Amino acid sequence: MPYYSFYLPSTFLPILLAGLYFLFEEKLTSPRLRWAWWIGSFVLVALVGYYVIQDHALYDYFKGYFHGGRKVVRNLDALYDEACYGFTNFPLFAYLFVPLANLPKELSGRIFYLVGYLCLLPLAYWLVTASKVKGWQKFLVLALLALNGPLDYSIWLGNTTQIVMLFVLLAFFSLNRRWDWLSGVLLGIGGLIKLPLVLPSGYFLLRGKWKVVGGGLLVAGAVLFLSLVLMPFELNSIWLERCVLMMAGNPTAAYNNQSLSGFLARIFMPGNYGWDPLTPIPAYLTALNISRIILALPVLYILIAGRKDKKQTFHYAVEFFIILVFSLLTSPIAWTHYFVLLLIPAAMILGNRERLPFRNWMWLLLALSLILLSVPKNLSLALFEWTGSTLMLSPQFIGSLLFYGLLLWVWGLSHSAVRAAN
Domain of 335? Predict the structure, then answer.
């Protein structure tokens, strides 16, 4: 498939192994057989992953994480440049990559890729298990994961999105088991790595899930304490100014920024599709502010109207992911690979059909949004070059808008059902 990266065939392997497990699950009757299956699968994936790494891939890893791991112990002043190009996470996070950064570059890249690649096996398993899909829909969910363009992009870049996605999945699995503290810890870690997860993680505060909030605050407090003790205060201020606040006020029109600000920047300030922050024009600011208000109104209504509903994990998940989609849409930057996270609520919708009196148009809307959310980055660029339309550069943005509407409708259906039951 020419629009995907050269990693696509190897990406299929762990997802295929998870699919084969579900296919033969009834025949793997003893725990010993199941352990043998998973251990053998991990060994096979590890062997393949070690040898498929390409030198010219893992752009984010070598530009950001590897760079950060070296600079944080060798030259702190060079950790962030003027445009926050390179390492973009908070300073303390760079310490996680110090062991890899001290290895030879080629070996370091192989190990990092291998960690993310091995995560695909439990990710595929838990996406099916946590969403409770049944029958042929298990294999539909796995196919959507295998062919997901943002996932392929994350793997090619050497990013951590698929690892964070696994944390989010396990957080909701833990919430379903009433392991609320663990859910909070996992969501707290995910939010520190991917900032658009911070807002939806804070949702549990408004719903009074205090143990989840406590787990998140435990992570945030530990990171804050260690940042103040181990890192110069000035360096934390530089990160906040250059990598957060500057991006919040100046849009980035790059093709892989799929947020509302990137979408509008490509329309109102055409011709510059690089990663440099742009000076916004009045028409852009007006359109941005109006659009954000329109997108925020449903979230405010849900937070108010649903505050007294008796909820199960599914209802918490729907509200959480509505806020996550809102966060991705309104964030100054939402990179293409972030949108693989929306496969989680899509799988949960498929796995809870008995709760939802779906109509045909809703299935069509789900299918259309998933197609757009799954478009490979190279296909988007090819369509843009062919048509000249900037809309072709925004498939994940448009898909997430449609998915936002679908999730709002799902919330309305489940909210009405809860009210009727009460």
Answer: 251-422
